[in-house]
Design brief:
With 920 residues, the protein is of the alpha/beta class. The protein folds into 5 domains: 115 residues; 145 residues, Rossmann fold (3-Layer(aba) Sandwich); 151 residues; 209 residues, Rossmann fold (3-Layer(aba) Sandwich), CATH 3.40.50.880; 230 residues, Domain of unknown function DUF4159 (Rossmann fold, 3-Layer(aba) Sandwich). The strands form 8 sheets. It has a 7-stranded mixed β-sheet, sandwiched between helices. Strands 33-32-34-35-38-37-36 form a 7-stranded mixed β-sheet, with helices on one face. Strands 6-5-4-7-8-30 form a 6-stranded mixed β-sheet, sandwiched between helices. β26 and β27 form a beta hairpin. α2 runs antiparallel to α13. The longest helix has 22 residues.
């Protein structure tokens, strides 16, 4: 490699061919050009002429110079000249390329790949072998170090690399590296993920002993970790941590369902100098239970994603009570302890049996009750068989009811036959002292719980001994008598606690065991009860390194049913395990601990960032120049031989086209990328020859297709009902397309919409200043209707992306606004959803104002208008059906008429006064 200041030649030996240029110059100079051939029949006139000796002509100097420049350009191009090349590989020897490809590398993986490619290119220029090392943990028997290998083979391995959804294991990697025979001296480049491990210092020193070490780490240490939510109270308590203290930082946590639909968003703020941020998500239980995933917006790492399973569901639990409130003495209330125990993880409701059965209730808890009416028994039995869980507690009333007839049995809504009366301390069926609990049997959902030694029972309702009593017993006292019995009925359970729900007969409600037992019983209603089993949980869906959920890899193995003993790894990637109806979420974040930044490298290490300096490769430009010179030489030669001016028009056009094609093929791809884009003239013609509606491209194919179909359908309605006959709608890219051709732009807001660049902001501000109108559709009215306060996730995203736009003060559409009567008389502006406000610029659209440059709604109008190719409407409208859809079309007609015609109907506000003056 030859270096001349900032200019470097990767193949300098090719430059030796320049020494042959003088010889070529002389050869071309002494060789005469080809003679010109002229047809001349009058040879007889030349017969008497005297033949004088002539000196042969030589090639013109300017043509020689042209050819010398051509040869020089080709020779210099083949030597691979580089301006300001990146020099990451000092000295000579093997390149040891160490890549952290654990979970934290996903955040800036494209930048890492670009840096790796630059290093491999430099090694290729220096003809260095490569040892490729990856540090992510791997299965037993696999190695993370390969080499030495040629650069071409290393490129193939790098192309197949992706970040892994588990941590690095630098200790194992160091052992693999030491097992290789690497010829000294070598140069190691460690592309770190910035997260500390247990043996980082030793690992760095081992790399440095190979010869020299360059450590590449990101300047942005903003790797975020999302902790699993605390399922406390009525909200998800969410904690986000970052590895370093820094300035104030705002992030958004998104809750979505299994289909990817965003159900809620919450902002978390890192205070200056803080490493933790907290937020909460609150939703109605019907929506909350649909949440299967929490993730940090803008983060693609597995640590920024938490999968949720049935353990996080908040089930609706009904407490049978004649009132909806506690009494004046809550500690004596039978339901007080149950309410307090269930409140943190269930949606607790109170009411009578009929009221609870009419609602969506997963579990019904019934305190001490005597004989139930036959109608209630029938209704409860049907509800249980559909999957409900009825949990009854004993007490004086149930004991008294058992005295009637031959006692109570399963037909009386108890799981076992009950003896008459009760067993009490000092009674006929008595024991000497209150008894503790025995260990839970193996068929019990409480089997993995440890009974506290201080729990005592002084009274109970006894079960009649039967053959199957043992199978129906979930808990016993130390003398073997049942304390909790249960019977499976259809898809549900009927369970009975043979003592009271307060402290009258037992101290169980005062213990933490009571809370855990209730939680386990509530879980049975939805398959959440974790009965201890040796059955392994097979992988269902797993996360890849970019937190995308998909089919499990072939290497995935079953997860132990006992729980998450160790963190994710090659054989057990994070994801869902178990069966479809009882999934177990296996997440990375709970196993990470507090993230710590990688410590300083060993002394003598060169430190670099992932950012690349601007390196300019001159080879493509020199080859293009050589081709241009060759074409000029060809043209000059043709002219000198007398053929230059005799080309037909068709031949000239064909030749010009050939030259353009050849030159275009030689232009570097980077240059083409700078000039590549749509046809602006064609776009302008399409937009102006016919009136067209337009929509802004969001990058979400589904949303963009809905916008296209919706505006296509609205255009048909406009053609049928008005004098406006729009052509097919056009998609607009605000980064490059001219906006001035359209009176109104429909812009649906998506949660993943990118922030606006300065260029886009300037273009949009200019569009609005010149009279254009933007219809922002946040599409989140369904969230607002469910109690999201001042706006939903769409409006929150709109506030973010529009913060630098010149937006005037806004107001709800006034009653007298022109938009309410531009074509139809409207009082509301429904779309797919109804309700809520539509906002316009304050003071505009009235008799004295101009057309509002901003219109904001949340109604998802395009979805209400959209029809598929077969003419069927794509989406249902909520809640008004087809009448609401017709009103949505009328809203669309008024919006277009308002944008196109302005406030020409503004004088209608004076119609009542005019009619009054005319005496009408």
């Amino acid at each position: 490699m030859l270096t001349l200041g900032s200019l470097v030649f990767a193949q300098p030996w090719i430059l030796s061919a320049l020494a042959g240029l003088p010889i070529i110059w002389l050869l071309l100079r002494v060789t005469p050009p080809s003679p010109r051939r002229i047809s001349f029949p009058g040879i007889r006139l030349l017969a008497e002429l005297r033949a004088d000796e002539e000196t042969p002509d030589t090639t013109p100097w300017w043509l020689l110079l042209l050819r010398m420049l051509f040869l020089a350009a080709v020779i210099i191009a083949l030597s691979q000249p580089l301006v300001d090349p990146n020099r990451d590989l000092p000295g000579e020897g093997t390149l040891v390329l160490v890549i952290d490809d654990g979970w934290a590398a996903a955040r800036d993986w494209p930048t890492r790949v670009e840096r790796i490619e630059r290093l491999l290119s430099e090694a290729e220029r220096d003809d260095r072998p490569v040892v490729l090392v990856t540090t992510a943990d791997r299965a037993a028997g696999e190695t993370g170090a390969v080499g030495p290998i040629p650069v071409a083979e290393a490129r193939k391995l790098v192309a197949a690399l992706e970040p892994k959804p588990w941590p690095t294991n630098r200790t194992k990697t160091m052992a693999d590296l030491m097992a290789l025979e690497i010829e000294a001296p070598a140069h190691a480049v460690w592309l770190t993920d910035g997260i500390a491990g247990a043996t980082d210092r030793e690992f760095g020193e081992a790399l440095q002993r190979l010869g020299s070490l360059t450590e590449v780490r990101s300047d942005d240490l903003g790797t975020l970790v999302l902790r699993p939510p605390a399922n406390e109270g009525r909200v998800f308590q969410i904690e986000v941590v970052r590895p370093v203290k820094g300035p104030e930082q705002h992030i958004w946590v998104r809750a979505s369902d299994h289909g990817g639909r965003v159900l809620a968003r919450a902002e978390a703020v890192f205070k200056e100098g803080a490493t933790q941020a907290e937020t909460e998500i609150s939703l109605p239980v019907e929506l909350r239970n649909d949440i299967t995933r929490l993730s940090i917006e803008g983060e693609v790492t597995v640590a920024a994603t938490v999968l949720l399973d049935n353990r996080f569901l908040r089930r609706p639990v009904g407490l049978v009570s004649q009132t909806d409130f506690q009494g004046a003495q809550p500690l004596l209330d039978e339901l007080h302890y149950i309410d307090r125990a269930l409140g943190p993880f269930a949606e607790v409701r109170r009411g009578n049996v009929d009221t609870l059965l009419r609602g969506e209730t997963a579990v019904i808890v019934m305190p001490d009750t005597g004989v139930l009416p036959h109608e209630q028994i029938t209704a409860l039995d049907a509800w249980i068989r559909r999957g409900g869980v009825l949990l009854r507690f004993a007490g004086p009333r149930l004991a008294a009811a058992s005295l009637e007839g031959n006692g109570l049995g399963p037909e009386d809504m108890v799981p076992v036959f009950l003896r008459r009366g009760e067993r009490a301390l000092g009674g006929a069926l008595s024991w000497a002292k209150p008894l503790p609990l025995a260990a839970f049997p193996s068929n019990s959902p409480f089997v993995d719980m440890e009974p506290p030694s201080d729990v005592r029972v002084s009274r109970q309702v006894l079960a009649e001994p039967t053959i199957d009593l043992g199978d129906r017993t979930w808990a016993r006292l130390s003398d073997g008598t049942p304390l909790v019995t249960a019977e499976r009925r259809g898809e549900g359970w009927l369970a009975l606690v043979h003592t009271t729900a307060n402290g009258n007969w037992t101290t169980l409600p005062l213990s933490g065991l009571f809370v855990n037992m209730l939680r386990r019983v509530v879980g049975l209603g939805t398959g959440l009860g974790r009965v201890k089993t040796t059955t392994a949980l097979a992988p269902l869906e797993t996360l890849d390194g970019f937190a995308k959920l998909g089919p499990p890899p072939a290497s995935a193995r079953a997860l132990d049913a006992d729980g998450e003993v160790s963190g994710p790894g090659p054989s057990r990637p994070p994801g869902y395990y178990g069966v479809e109806l009882a999934r177990r979420a296996f997440n990375l974040a709970p196993t990470l601990g507090e993230p710590v930044v990688l410590g300083p490298p060993p002394e003598g290490t060169v430190q670099r960032g992932y950012g690349l300096d601007a390196e300019l490769d001159l080879m493509p430009w020199l080859l293009v120049s050589a081709m241009v010179l060759a074409l000029l030489d060809l043209i000059a030669t043709l002219v000198l031989r007398g053929h230059g001016l005799r080309l037909s028009r068709k031949a000239s056009v064909a030749g010009a086209a050939l030259i353009i094609v050849v030159l275009a093929g030689l232009v570097p791809e980077s240059v083409l990328a700078q000039s590549r884009g749509g046809d602006p003239e064609g776009f302008a013609l399409n937009a102006t020859l016919n009136t067209r509606l337009a929509y802004v491209l969001t990058g979400d194919p589904g949303v963009d297709e809905t916008s296209r179909e919706g505006l296509e359908s609205l255009s048909q309605v406009l053609t049928e009902r008005t004098a406006i006959e729009p052509d097919s709608p056009m998609a607009v890219d605000i980064r490059s397309d001219e906006l001035a051709f359209f009176a109104i732009l429909y812009w649906p807001i998506t949660a993943t919409q990118a922030d606006l660049s300065e260029t886009e902001i300037r273009r949009l501000n200019a569009y609005m200043r010149n009279g254009g109108t933007i219809l922002f559709d946040t599409r989140d009215q369904y969230e607002i209707g469910l109690g999201a306060g001042g706006g939903g996730s769409g409006l929150a995203r709109l506030r973010q992306i529009s913060r630098d736009l010149d937006i005037p003060p806004l107001q709800p559409v006034p009653v007298e606004h022109v938009m309410t009567k531009a074509f139809y008389l409207l009082k509301e502006f429904p779309g797919r959803y109804t309700g809520g406000q539509v906002w316009v610029a304050a003071g505009e659209g009235t008799s004295d104002g101009e057309v509002s440059q901003i219109i904001i709604g949340a109604h998802d109008w395009a979805a209400a208008w959209a029809r598929s190719s077969d003419g069927l409407y794509r989406f249902p409208v909520i809640p008004g059906g087809e009448l609401q859809r017709e009103m949505a079309f009328r809203v669309g007609v008024n919006l277009v008429m308002y944008a196109l015609t302005g406030n020409y109907k503004a004088d209608q506000v004076h119609v009542p006064a005019i009619l009054e003056r005319l005496g009408h």
